[in-house]
Design goal:
326 residues; alpha/beta; TIM Barrel; 2 domains; 7-stranded antiparallel sheet
């Protein structure tokens, strides 16, 4: 299985992708939903770091597609066929429709095959049919198809998901794409912001925090009723707590400490106040993936022991949400 980053709206943050894309990882894009992605994709392929791209040629908020889209499919497929000619060693996958409701997807996949014979057609249904002739891709919690397929978190915010369970469930996927809401320019799930007005684009730390999710979480545990979120809510207001880990727990104390095996304090999450459900909130001082790397430097692994009032109550990997998932 190859890992990938599903930038999708990456046409809006090309320079960041060029700086941050990890060696050997795949990349996913919308072809034109957030502007023409082709220049960004070509710049990325020119680095030699990205051996595999998947392009969603068309998106519709209503998941409605049909024959009226055929001219656009033909035009975009030809453009990526030309790019394939420049980078013959790179796998370029083309999905005519992202998350469709069609019962006859092969008709459109065949058009992609004819217009871009050196690229790989990929079927990406929403409530539509799987293809029995072409490769499929599933998103979020959709059921697994037969045969070769990709998996993407698209639509499921990576930092809030049970990543370990998903990686295990889709270990046979050709590519496992990581995605988070800021890849599409929103600060949080459920935001209703018109595409031209979005400002929640990812930065280097956000990309690194998604990359960190490909690692093995290892054995972790917390008491029942305890929640550790690796990414606190970001409302785009410049709040210094945004994206840093937050605890929501049934215990009130001055702080929750993360300690190394030798007792060294990795971080002290200070008490902030009550949560809406009666539990209590604490915020860590730095991003979760950075705390995990600090733990690794101190005692050789990324997990950290959790202490409250001098008592050890569990162990976490600070890059990952722990306690419950969405």
């Amino acid at each position: 299985m190859r890992y990938g980053l599903d930038y999708l709206a990456g046409a809006r943050y090309s320079d960041l992708i060029l700086r941050e894309h990890p060696e050997g990882w795949a990349a996913g894009f919308f072809a034109n939903t957030f502007g023409n992605a082709l220049p960004t994709v070509e710049r990325l392929l020119a680095t030699g770091r990205c051996p595999h791209v998947r392009i969603q040629l068309l998106w519709s908020d209503s998941h409605t597609f049909g024959d009226g889209d055929i001219p656009t499919i033909r035009r975009l497929a030809r453009a990526y066929q030309a790019l394939k000619g420049k980078y013959p060693s790179v796998t370029i996958e083309l999905s005519p429709f992202c998350e469709h409701n069609l019962q006859n997807p092969d008709k459109y996949l065949e058009i992609v095959k004819n217009e871009a014979p050196d690229c790989v057609p990929v079927n990406v249904p929403w409530r539509g049919a799987f293809s029995k002739r072409f490769k499929n891709e599933i998103h979020g919690d959709h059921s697994k198809p037969q045969g070769a397929y990709n998996y993407s978190l698209d639509g499921m915010n990576g930092p809030d998901a049970n990543i370990t369970a998903l990686k295990n469930a889709h270990a046979s996927a050709d590519v496992f794409f990581f995605w988070g809401i800021r890849m599409n320019g929103n600060y949080h799930m459920g935001a209703k912001v018109a595409r031209p007005d979005r400002k929640g684009w990812p930065d280097s730390r956000y990309i690194d925090s998604l990359i960190a999710l490909h690692k093995d979480k290892g054995q972790t545990n917390l008491p029942r009723g305890w929640l550790f979120k690796s990414h606190a809510e970001n409302k785009g207001t410049g709040d210094p707590r945004a994206e840093k880990p937050v605890w929501v727990v049934p215990v009130k104390a001055r702080a929750i400490e993360l300690r190394a095996d030798n007792g060294q304090v990795i971080d002290s999450a200070k008490y902030y106040g009550p949560f809406a459900d009666g539990r209590h909130r604490y915020y860590c001082s730095d991003w979760g993936f950075l705390l995990a790397e600090k733990a690794r430097r101190i005692h050789g692994h990324p997990r950290a022991n959790v202490f409250v009032n001098g008592k050890r109550i569990g162990i976490i990997h600070p890059s990952f949400r722990e306690g419950s998932w969405r």
